[in-house]
Amino acid sequence: MVATALSRTVKPVPYDEVETVPPPPDPDLLHALIAEAAYYRAEKRGFAGGGELEDWLEAEKEVLEMQEKLSIPTPD
């Protein structure tokens, strides 16, 4: 009898040894998270004009750092 992939015995892997990789976040979700973080930054400074770009860039940095800490791959 010829062994095939379907007839081969496979040793089960314990759950705690399974390596899982989360899917990359949806780009729309990533944008929404950055927008929300930027909003809260603007709120902290009383919504004074002129700091919108800085709020966005700092929020983007914060969200991407959190993404990296959680080992979530970046979307292509």
UniProtKB/TrEMBL annotation:
<dbReference type="Pfam" id="PF11154">
    <property type="entry name" value="DUF2934"/>
</dbReference>
<protein>
    <submittedName>
        <fullName>DUF2934 domain-containing protein</fullName>
    </submittedName>
</protein>
<dbReference type="InterPro" id="IPR021327">
    <property type="entry name" value="DUF2934"/>
</dbReference>
